[in-house]
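Justification of resources, computational component.

The compute hours requested in this renewal are based largely on the per-chain cost of generating structure records like the one below. Each record pairs the submitted sequence with a full structure-token output. That output is archived, and it is also reused by downstream analysis tasks.
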Amino acid sequence: MDSSAPKWTEIEHLPEWDEEFYHVYTAKKYGKWLMLKTLRPELKGQEEYDKMIEKEFEVRYNLAHPHIIMINDFEEVPGLGMCIITDDVYGDSLEKLIREHKVTDEHIYKLHHQLLDALDYIQTNHLAHHPLNASRVIFTENIGNLKLIDVGFDQKKFLTHEDTNDDIYNYGVLLTKALDAVDTPHPKLRKVAEKCMADDPKKRYRTLDDLRLDLADTRTNRLYICIIIFLVAMIGLLLWLTSSHRPETLIN
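The structure output for this chain reads:
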């Protein structure tokens, strides 16, 4: 590494990625592309917000999931101040893909696999986070891998049913918007999204596991049912053969 080379270069603001309290940038650190997240200028120097960004770094630093943006460091960047440093996940947000009518069946597939995996990880780790929406779901530029950003600002001892219910409702809203932007009908996913958004919260999925079960492939469900029926039948046969009620010819 050339010690005379500047540490930070090509710092560029990404307005579309900005969050409620933060500005987001892309930059190179010693030639490697990374993403930077820093407080909006009007919030810098205020103790409440300084503690907020520090807390978010502490909460997210030890997270590790393939579909969640990973945090590398928290450091001073010239011209920006203290920044949360993350892996580079430059690409298109789902919001942008919807707006530009570029949503594909591959994106839909990843929404009901990779995104649910990320949400499950967030809930398992009891992370309090901002509401899920299309601007927080990114598909990376080269391979289109799904990455969820802005995934947690605090860690609780447990999540309430209201917390998890909000995730399910917002997932349904996001999925509906994505389905509206693709030509393929996907009737099964439509039905799932509608249940996520049911007016009566009691009629929604209670957990992500319930939601996943409904999304499971029908052929897979049939296979599981057949296996279960077979095993039950074999257990019943075994119990009958070892019971006192079996025919004498079998005993002899």
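The mean pLDDT is 89. The CA atoms of residues 13 and 25 lie 4 Å apart.
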